[in-house]
C-alpha cells in the first residue's frame, strides 16, 4: 500500500504543479520504459527464453495478467520497470536455472544480444521520434541579428540589427545555432539579407569568451552578434529526415557521454545531477510549450536511457554485458562471490546516485540550488 500512496501523492503534486500536462509526462516516461523492456522481452523470446515477469514500474503490483506463462504487471511506483527472465534475477545474483528455456544456458553472445536489445530499442525509438520531428518541424531561432557587440568584428564590418545571415563561407545557414558552428578564426565572407537586399560582407572573427552548454566559460572565434529572438520552424522531409534523425541520435549520445566525462573529472558539479523529478519538471514544461518541444525532450530522454543502461555498472545492462564479455574471453564465468559483491556494490552506487539526484531535484525545484 505504501507504494500506491506514494504514487497517488506524486500524481496529486504533479497535477497541482503542472495541471494535466503532468499526465503527459507520466505517459511519456512510462512508454520509454515500456519500449526499453520490450527490447529485452522480444530478444529473449526470439531465443526461446521464458520471461517470468514484464513490469512497468517497481514495487507493489497494482494489476497482473498472466499470458503464455508471463506475468504482465503494472506496479505502484512508475519510476522504472523490468523484465525478469528465467535464470536471471538482479535481486538475487546467485539464483540460476539450467532448463532449456533459461537465460543461463545461452552462450555469452546470445545473452549480450538480449542485454543490448533494451538500450538499442531506446536508440531506435529516439531515431523515429527525430524522423517525426523532421516532418512536423522543429522550432529554432532564426539567424537574424538582434544586437551588435561594441568593438566586435560585426560592428567593424558594418552588420546591423535585423540583418539575416544566409551563408558563411558558402555554407547555407538555416538557424541561429549553425552560425557558431561555421565561424572560424580566418577571413570570412558572410552573405546577408538586409531588408530584401542581398549583401556580401567580409570580416575576420575575433577570439572572445562565451558560455557553452555545460555553463563553462570558453574561448572561441566570435562575430559579435546576438539573436533577435525570432523563431522559425525547420523541416527535414524525405530521405533528408533519415540523415537528420541519425545525426541527432548520435549527437545526443555524444552529449550524454561528454556530460558524464565532465562529471567524473570535476568540470561539472555533482549538484548538477538531476533525477526523475527534474525529468518530470522539464517534460511537463515542454508539453506546455508545444508538441515538437515535448517530442524533442522525449527523444533526448530515450537516448539518455539507452546510454546510461550501457554503462558498465553491475545491475545495469552494461554491467551484465561486461560479465558476459569476461566469460567470452576467459572461457569461464565470473566467480560467484565476486559477482554477488559487484552486483550489490552496483545497487549501492545506483541508490546513491538516485538519492543525490532526488536531493538535487528537490533543492532545485524549491529554489535552494
Could you characterize the architecture of this molecule?
Helix content is 51%, strand content 22%. The chain has 369 residues and is an alpha+beta fold. The strands form five sheets. Strands 6-5-7-8 form a four-stranded antiparallel sheet. A two-stranded antiparallel sheet has the order 1-2. A hairpin with a 2-residue loop joins strand 5 (164-168) and strand 6 (171-172). Helix 2 packs across helix 7 (276-289), helix 6 crosses helix 8 and helix 7 packs antiparallel against helix 8 (291-309). The longest helix is centred in the last third of the chain and has 30 residues, at 336-365. The protein is elongated.
Keywords:
alpha+beta, 4-stranded antiparallel β-sheet, 10 helices, 12 strands
Gist of the model:
This protein starts with a helix and ends with a helix. By secondary structure, the protein is α+β, with helices and mostly antiparallel strands.
How are the SSEs placed, and which strands pair?
Blueprint: H1 2-18, H2 21-46, E1 51-67, E2 70-85, H3 108-136, E3 138-141, E4 145-148, H4 153-157, E5 164-168, E6 171-172, H5 177-182, E7 188-194, E8 197-203, E9 206-211, E10 217-222, E11 225-227, E12 231-234, H6 239-265, H7 276-289, H8 291-309, H9 317-330, H10 336-365
Antiparallel strand pairs: 1-2, 3-12, 4-11, 5-6, 5-7, 7-8, 9-10
Helix pairs in contact: 2-3, 2-7, 2-8, 3-6, 3-8, 3-9, 6-8, 7-8
